[in-house]
Amino acid sequence: MNFENILIASENGIGQITINRPSKLNALNVATIKELHDGLESLNNNPEIKVIIITGEGEKAFVAGADISEFAHFTVDQGAQLAQQGQELLFNFIENLNTPVIAAVNGFALGGGLELAMACHIRIASDNAKMGLPEVSLGVIPGYGGTQRLPQLVGKGRAMEMIMTAGMITAEEAYRTGLVNHVVPQAELLDFTKSLAQRIMKNSPVAIGKAIESVNANFTDGVNGFDSEIINFGKCFGTGDFIEGTTAFLEKRKADFKGN
After folding, report:
1. Which residues are identified as catalytic?
2. Quick one: pLDDT at residue 72?
């Protein structure tokens, strides 16, 4: 599979996607969104890959926003279609993957870039990162899930302030509000992210997938998260990973999970 806007690598069970448009500060356009979907799908379908990392090329930007030139002259219907297709193809797709996805935010994460990071299951930021949703300064609102995921992560009041002021916050502010899980020096960002991925990989891939599904259920309209947890808890009992995990515990050894 050949890509123009992203780079894909894999090593020791970790897949890495790097958004590679540094001359555009890795801005998201329609083509890049499609490539990200295809790249993520291929890694998710690879049984050897246990965790996926998304980052941006260079030291300036994770993703500095959407490519405004693509939609500056859109009609009302075209704008709504852009948001709907983007959410379904990439942002909701990431959120609901059963393979954990970690955003390694290596610089500016603005607009669609922050929305991409928020769709990931975990966010790690370099200490030079700056984040924000500046859309209202362009006369539009976040359209890739920003108005929904930001309040879930930082609370309604802080989300309202960030969206309405169109301002940026530092990595430390993002950490303090719960928007990111960790802040590390930029030179250590990928190593730290991979070390976190390795900790995740020690556990059952099947159970992790069910945990993702259950956590997401609490934020899905019309779905009872507790019921989802009960159902997925029960399903785990029918897996080889459950047998291996409980057997290894009783035998006082490390589990060797196969992901089935």
Report:
1. 115, 135
2. 86
The H-assigned helical ranges of the chain are 30-44, 76-86, 92-95, 112-119, 146-154, 156-165, 171-177, 189-201, 205-217, 225-236, 240-250
Place of tokens 């790097």: 18
Q: Nearest to residue 238, comparing CAs of 202, 199, 210? A: 210
Encode pLDDT of 53-107 as tens digits.
Answer: 999 999 899 999 888 888 889 999 999 999 999 999 999 999 999 999 999 999 9
Type of residue found at 89: L
In one-letter notation, the amino acid at residue 220 is T
Residue 259 DSSP SS3: coil
Question: Is residue 125 over pLDDT 80?
Answer: yes
What span, in angstroms and rounded, lies between the C-alpha atoms of 5 and 59? 17
Phi, psi at residue 198, to the nearest 5°? Answer: -65, -35
* Angle between the N-to-C axes of helices 205-217 and 240-250, in degrees from 0 to 180, rounded to the nearest 10: 110
Residues counted in the chain: 260
Among candidates 141, 109, 83, which has minimal Cα distance to 25? 109
Q: How far apart are CA 162 and CA 236, in angstroms?
A: 40
Q: Is 175 helix (H, G, I), strand (E, B) or coil?
A: helix
What is the tens place of the pLDDT at every residue in 132-167? 999 999 999 999 999 999 999 999 999 999 999 999
| DSSP code for 21 | -
